[in-house]
Structures are given as C-alpha cells and as structure tokens.
Design a protein that fits this description.
105 residues; mainly alpha; Arc Repressor Mutant, subunit A; 3-stranded antiparallel beta sheet; elongated
Length: 105
C-alpha cells in the first residue's frame, strides 16, 4: 500500500490507541483531514485488511444523531502501519554532513 502524508496522519491517529474504536468526525478532528480525503482513505485501508469496521448500536432518534461507524486497526494492520510509518520516517531523515564546508574567499 502506498503511504501518503494523509495516510500517515490517519495511521498515526489510529496507532495512538490501536485498541480504540474511532469514528469519522473524531478522525477528521485529530488529523485535520476533510471528509472527502478521509473516507476514501479509510475505505482503502479496509480493503487492504488494515481496518475493521462496525456500526454503533444505538437508537438514532434517542441519541439525536445518526449511528456512528467505528474503525479500528486489525492486529496485522497495526503491525503494517508501524512498519510503514517507520519506513516513511527513515526515508525523510536528512543525514548530518560529515564535514564542514568553508567558503573559498
């Protein structure tokens, strides 16, 4: 799976507490992503087997809101997410210079 910056944000939010159920608005607020970016990304993660999903069991009329769809990393998804984020971080680290370059003036 290709890990983009928005994907990395979602994975980092989910990895903050891998056992927690998270819903869309919660993830939008913690990642700063718009729904048009977040939901297709969640769908791709579900298709890849990285996420499980379930609907909240509530009476929408009694709650005064629609039922929430919860997302959670699978065990394999959490492992793959950690690995993907580590690889992304390693690829973006700028190495320290080995020597100091002085101007030639």
């Amino acid at each position: 799976m290709r890990i983009t910056v928005p994907t990395a944000r979602v994975l980092a939010a989910l990895l903050a507490d891998p056992q927690a159920d998270r819903y869309g608005l919660d993830l939008m607020q913690s990642t700063g992503l718009a729904s048009g970016t977040l939901y297709p990304l969640l769908h791709r993660l579900m298709e890849a087997g990285w996420l499980t999903t379930r609907w909240e069991e509530v009476d929408p009329a009694a709650q005064g809101r629609p039922a929430r769809r919860y997302y959670r990393l699978t065990a394999a998804g959490a492992t793959q997410a950690r690995q993907a984020l580590a690889e992304m971080q390693a690829a973006t680290v700028v190495p320290e210079p080995t020597h100091t370059v002085r101007p030639a003036w």
